[in-house]
Amino acid sequence: MRLIALIASIITALQAGFGLIYGSIICPNAGCKIVETLTTIRPVYLNLIGLIFFQAVFWTLHAAKGKANFRIDLLGILLVGGLVFESALLAYQVFVARTFCGYCLLIFIFVLALNVLYGKRQMAAGFAVLAAAVISFAILTFVPTGVLSQAEPLKSAAYGVKSCSTPSKEIYLIFSSNCPYCEKVLETLSNCNSCDLYLNPIDQVASIKNIELAPNPKFSPAVNRLVLAALGIDSVPVLVVKSAEGFRLIKGERQIVNYVRHACFTEADVMYLEKNVISGHDEITVLTEQEGECSLAIDCNQQVK
Known about the structure:
By secondary structure, the protein is α+β, with helices and mostly antiparallel strands. The chain has 2 domains: 2-138, Up-down Bundle (de novo design (two linked rop proteins)), CATH 1.20.1440; 146-304, Glutaredoxin (3-Layer(aba) Sandwich), CATH 3.40.30. Helices cover 49% and strands 14% of the residues. The protein has 11 helices and 10 strands. The protein has helices spanning 2-22, 31-36, 43-64, 74-97, 102-117, 120-138, 152-157, 180-189, 221-230, 253-263, 300-304; strands spanning 160-162, 169-175, 195-201, 214-215, 235-236, 238-243, 246-251, 277-281, 284-287, 294-295. The strands form 2 sheets. An 8-stranded mixed beta sheet has the order 4-1-3-2-6-7-9-8, with helices on both faces. Helix 1 packs antiparallel against helix 3 (43-64). The longest helix is centred in the N-terminal third of the chain and has 24 residues, at 74-97. It is elongated and about 70 Å long.
C-alpha cells in the first residue's frame, strides 16, 4: 500500500509540475482535453489535491506501522473518501461527458487498489461506494451538453480560426473532408463577416480553400470526433453556435447555410428556420434535418449517389 501511495504521489507531483510549466497535463488519450474543460478548477489543482491525498495515505501507513490501530480508523475514512471522489469523476465521464481520461482512470485504479489491499471490510465498503456511484449516474438522464459548458474543447482542437473585428457570436463547424455537403457549407462560410469562425474537421486536411485562417498548431481531429460522440451525433456537417443566449447545434447543409446567411452577415441573429427540435435544454437548442448530412458510419460519396 505504501508503495502504491508513493508511486501515485510521484505521478501526481510530476503532472502538477508539468501543468504549472506547460498549462496542461500529460495524458495517453485525447479524451483528457475534453475532461479538462469540465472541471471548475484547473487540472493542476486537481493533481495537487491528489498529491496531498496520496501523501496523507503514505504517511498515515508509515505512522501506523508496528503500532496499534487508531480508535477511529482515519485511514479507512480517507480511503473511502478518495474512492467516492474518484467514482463520481469516473461515472460523470462515462454517463455525462461520454468520454474518458486515461490518466484519470489510472488514478482511479490506484485508489481502488488501496481500498482493496486495506482489508476485506474496506474492500466491501469500496465496492459498495463504486456500485452506488455507477448506479446513481446510470438511472439518471443527462443531456450531453457537458462538453459545451465552455467552447474550449472545440477551440483548442480547431484546424484554424477566421476572426472578425467585432464578432456577434462564435461558430464552430464540425465537418469531414470527404463530405460534399460540407463543401457547400464551407463555400458559404468563406465570406462570413460578423462571426468568429472555427473550423473543426474530424479528419486530417491538407488545406482549406478560399478561407483565410489563422492556423492552430494544436489541431486535433480526434478531439473533434470525441465532441460529436459526446453529443450523441453521428453525422456531419454540424454547426455549434455560441452566443450570449447559450449554445445552439445546427445539423445539415440547408439549415447551416440558411443560418449563416442570416446570422453571420448581419449583426442580428435572425430565427428564420422551420424548427425541428430533437432535444432541448435551458442553454442549448438543436435544429436538424435528415437531408444534407453525411453519416460517419457510411462513406458519404455512396450516400450522395
